[in-house]
């Protein structure tokens, strides 16, 4: 759960870090004699990478955060649905972690299946790597805030703050989620794009007709709309300097970028633990001064499933969408990298992450070929995701082992969960 959030935050930071209009003037890209390779996800040099703080596990269930705790506005994902950016990064990954599930634990009602179905607040407190911390958001039992301090991208340091909703999808229950691994480019159907081009063409013709009227010297009274023709794309004016006759840039919208495939309606079926990114912001002096939080969008979902002797899942072949969910054999998830192997009949936890970030590179950054930027950015995201999710799932497996065998530990967890809930006004 927490690892998915950390991955989303890290990926978002990696993309937004390069969306700085005056990066060169702030000295963010020094020492490029070895050749600069930059993705729209983050700037890198050959043989170089970001510099995270030393690994440090931080327990996170003993602290809560107010629903509104900063003057820096969170980017609300729901309001960004449908937005398409010129460059888009994608990452899909599956991580499998074998788990020790003893026959005695199963017989005592402490199977891996039972553990994974616990209230979310009893296991989101698994220690996180990279100095990250997960905290409850007050007045919302399913909402958590992840913070990753001090992520450095060359000389730019940012602090991603992500809010995620974590929930248990029960047996037989279905939910619709976002994916960046299938669908139409930018989530727009061919019919939608044809309609858009028709609207743009209509607007172009209307503006051309208006300009003809405004330029007609025989017209005794020009329409009021002529006053709106004050934007000049090429900076030129007519000879009399009386009226700027070229269209305002804002008058005619440009076609929506093509984007990469995405959908909002992939059906997943329980049982699983589902994490969905809700909102995000980046903190840091330079980031805030330049308004980087207005320049990106991200999406992220992670689904955890399990094989356990405690239910019917042990013999089941785990799929991201569940036993009755959508067939994704023709989607990008079918070719996603798989980390970790599990033997048949062995208890395990599997996590599927699906991350997407949209960016609109400003100024000279836009000159970098999109295909190159996206390819490099995808690799950066996948590398980060692999590290975070692998560490977290291993920790989750170890936590289950302790929970199944230590009565005092189980009791302490329940007490800590109740105290955290009380602190969050739940």
Query: Helix/strand/pairing class, anyone?
Result: alpha+beta
Count of individual beta strands: 15
Total of helices: 8
Helical content class: 25-40%
The radius of gyration over CA amounts to: 25 Å
Walkthrough of the structure:
- With 426 residues, the chain is α+β, with helices and mostly antiparallel strands.
- 27% of the residues lie in helices and 26% in strands.
- The chain contains eight helices and 15 strands.
- It has helices spanning 2-16, 77-80, 103-107, 112-116, 190-215, 285-289, 370-405, 407-423, and strands at 36-38, 43-45, 64-65, 75-76, 87-98, 133-137, 143-147, 151-153, 156-169, 174-185, 261-269, 272-283, 296-307, 337-339, 348-359.
- Strands 3, 4, 5, 6, 7, 8, 9, 12, 13, 14 and 15 form an eleven-stranded mixed beta sheet that branches. A two-stranded antiparallel sheet has the order 1-2. Strands 10-11 form a two-stranded antiparallel sheet.
- A hairpin with a 4-residue loop joins strand 1 and strand 2.
- Helix 1 packs antiparallel against helix 7 (370-405).
- The longest helix is centred in the C-terminal third of the chain and has 36 residues, at 370-405.
- The two termini are 20 Å apart.
- The model is unreliable at 7-62 and 231-250 (pLDDT under 50).
